[in-house]
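Reposting from the mailing list since nobody answered there.

I have sequence plus structure tokens for a pair of proteins and want to know whether others read the tokens the same way I do. The first protein:
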Amino acid sequence: MLKEIQTDRLLWLLMALLIILFVLSLMLGTVQVPLQEIFNFNYSSEASYHKIIWEYRFPRALTAMLTGIALPISGWVLQEYFRNPLAGPSVLGVTSTAGLGVALMIMIGGSLGHQTLVESSWGLTLSGLGGAFLSMIVLLWVAKFNFSTTALIIIGFMMAAFSGALISLLSYFATSNELKSYVLWTFGSISGLSTERILYFSFFVLLGAALVIRNIPSLIKIQLGEMYATTMGVNVKSLRIELIIAASVLTGVCTALVGPISFIGLAVPHICRTYLKTANFYRLFAHVIIVGMLLMLLFNIVSVMFPGGSLPINIITSLLGAPIVLHIIMNNKKVWNG
């Protein structure tokens, strides 16, 4: 993997662009921070700038980058494993069940007198993670029966539909304040995470990415079919379980901490395949990570520079992402046919 990265000039160019966008994320906003203040560590000079940078914009940019790693990796590994261009982080129902956990906390927790827990970001985080891991446990149990990949996709869609129905039922009986709180969560937010939660986020992103990297050789072999992969020494059942865990962890923790961010997980792998036109999984994996971070930083800048105030990140990803996906699908019919 390191050899592919070292010789990939385009990847190094994208990394340089990533650094530029990261610096711009620290500079741009309601208050414009001069470039020299970004690299000025003399806290006595402009304390207000340092507070804006390190307490607000740096955590927000870091959260955007972590989201840009987690969701695209999850989408890429699901698309490659299921060999389905429509597969994304929500294909296994993890995003929907995480949303169900949050809906239960907001709409039932408040009614039971746990308003303090509902208003706590940790309350929403734990409920979202609980819903995501419930989905993972169900899928791991289903995987024991060695169903086909198509069956797992159908089960994931059914779990998403069932979760959506329960959320609609909860919304029907919710109060106006509870419904408003849930709708605001669905907009997504990459701001407001504490250092502790960012470290927590980073740990699970690294864990999920490590599981994917560990299984890339097996993922390459399974492209020619499960029977071929088995003859090459791949434990297909173990591979499936580990990839489900990786996708669930990456999607679940991101959804719980940031909200149900759309587009990124589905579109970034397609974008990378379109301009790379390569079957090299290691090179594609590296580009998926960099492009994911680039787009999330770009969306972050668009969000904070929006006239009239900061616009929710999920609105930005949907508005800018949907046309890109449609363009890729309409102009690259043979992306998945070689």
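The second protein, same order (residues first, tokens after):
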Amino acid sequence: MSEPKPKLAMYWAASCGGCEIALANIHEALLEVDRHFDFMFCPCLLDTKRADIEALADKAIFLTLFNGALRTTENREMAELLRQKSQVFVAFGACAATGGIPALANHHGIGAVLDASFLSAPSVDNPERIVPGHRTVVPEGELELPRFLARVLAVSEAVAVDYSIPGCPPEPEQIVAVVRHVASGKALPPAGSQLGCTERAVCDGCSREKKGLLTGRLVRPFETLPEAGWCLVEQGFACVGSSTRGGCGALCPAANMPCTGCYGPLDRTADPGAAALAAVVAAVDPGGGNGREEAALHAHVREALAGVADPVGTFYRYALAASVVADRESEGRS
């Protein structure tokens, strides 16, 4: 009788589901996953229940790919449970690694999130102004929803993470490379390593040419079409590829869209937003500051940077939970 295969689990917390799609996008390499692993837990694909995981012995799961940030008490409980049951626990994708898009809610607070979702959005039809509560009594009984955590967390803020695979989502070829390495039986990288990425900037893999020019002002993508083959930053787009870790193949610039930083800062010790801001501002022409009055210079810089309508959403898009401003208290927090 053949030896049982090591168990592989995947979990979806606060995220969009793109990480599951990325796994499906490895196409025929899924057969390799099946050959090497018992893929036994993935709520969006399999009918394994939480009770089945709780019944396992500790460390019975060899590898867990945990995607999504921690928004609710249930998210945190599942992270703790899967950490307990797993030998190797991986923060899979930007949301798990650094908070991702869900963590932008930390800039506003729970009250503002509920208001935007259920009351004030133009598409909402809610005349009774009903907002979900933790417990709701209905004729059939009492319904209970998980509570929101005070703020969205990166997974590493709640449990020990062995490795992180960045990206929104991680690219399929990077996923395949990681799975093949694990399946080969080769020694794993040092704990804390970033997998499925490179130590060089996105710009290193970008085919667009830098001409050494400064832009007069930053522009938003809807304002103009970029010139083919020319660096997007030099054309005024807030592309942060020069401060972002590579591994994606520079897909966004190839599609005429600026890099938004989903693979994380190139310098792991840097604040992600500060690194992204510095990369973009360095390409803006200060307008010949010599001899100009300070007020006029400030006005010029403000005008030049006006193309960034949402600085937090632009420079901390994927990493607000992991930044130095993560614990900023916002008005209306509840």
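Reply #1 (J.P.):
I read it the same way you do. The beta strands are 7-12, 38-41, 61-67, 70-72, 86-92, 135-138, 141-144, 148-153, 163-165.
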